[in-house]
Amino acid sequence: MVRRVIDEISKLAGTCSPALMLPAAANAAVYALTELFPGSSAVICRAAADRPARVAGGRGPHGLGGTNKGQLTSQAGLASGFTLLELLVVMTVIGLMASLVAPRYFAHVGKSQVKLARAQIEELDKALDTFRIDVGHHPTTEEGLQALVEQPNGEPNWAGPYLKKKDLPKDPWGRPYVYQQPGTHGSDFDLFSYGKDGRPGGTGEDADITNW
């Protein structure tokens, strides 16, 4: 029984997007309580919610309203609260769902950060080319990317700032982009981020993000 419940929860988590984790966890918790505790308050509440409402004034087998007063009292008492064991099951289910879905969520966040870094590098690359058209050359390594927002000394043809914002963007991990001129990879300049780990090389989210 427990193995079947865990398999069902794993199957649900496998098809669940991070944004739907909470409702999925709630459904999984109700399923677990239904399977493990047939008399659980969750089962009674779900059955009551699924039962079609009677038409006002309708007459059932127990008279007006169609429900025995004793039956209502019994159901109300059973549905009045969850036992400690049921609450522990719910907490365990939510924890299991989080452990299955969270890695997918953080992987999605990591991919978004890499995409943002690529977009920022592309924007800086275009700004550097516009700088070269106006000034006649790219900024030196010493001048750095700051030359895009502040006029370097001895550059009368500077027509910046060349970025929409006055502050230079940092990579998604809060570090400045690295700029080197001339470039060492067949380009006029090198522009890159060291990725999530802040160190050269790496794979996945830790890989360098470059303009070459």
Task: Explain what this protein looks like in three dimensions.
- With 212 residues, the protein is mainly alpha-helical.
- 48% of the residues lie in helices and 6% in strands.
- It contains five helices and five strands.
- It has helices spanning 2-14, 21-36, 41-50, 69-78, 84-135; strands at 59-60, 63-64, 178-180, 190-193, 209-210.
- Strands 3-4-5 form a three-stranded antiparallel β-sheet, covered by helices on one side.
- A hairpin with a 2-residue loop joins strand 1 and strand 2 (63-64).
- It is elongated.
- 17% of the residues are buried.
- The model is unreliable at 43-49, 53-60, 62-67 and 70-80 (pLDDT under 50).
Quick structural summary:
The chain has 212 residues and is mostly helical. It has helices spanning 2-14, 21-36, 41-50, 69-78, 84-135; strands at residues 59-60, 63-64, 178-180, 190-193, 209-210. β1 (59-60) and β2 form a beta hairpin.
Relative strand content: 5-15%
Helix content: 40-55%
Global shape: elongated
Order of helices and strands, N to C? Answer: HHHEEHHEEE
Distance between the termini: 56 Å
Structural class of the helices, strands and pairings?
mainly alpha
The biggest beta sheet reads: 3 strands, antiparallel
Poorly predicted runs: 43-49, 53-60, 62-67, 70-80
Strand order of the biggest β-sheet: 3-4-5
Strands, total number: 5
- Please give the count of helices: 5
Overall pLDDT, averaged? 76
The Rg value, from CA coordinates, equals 31 Å
Secondary structure layout:
Elements: H1 2-14, H2 21-36, H3 41-50, E1 59-60, E2 63-64, H4 69-78, H5 84-135, E3 178-180, E4 190-193, E5 209-210
Antiparallel strand pairs: 1-2, 3-4, 4-5
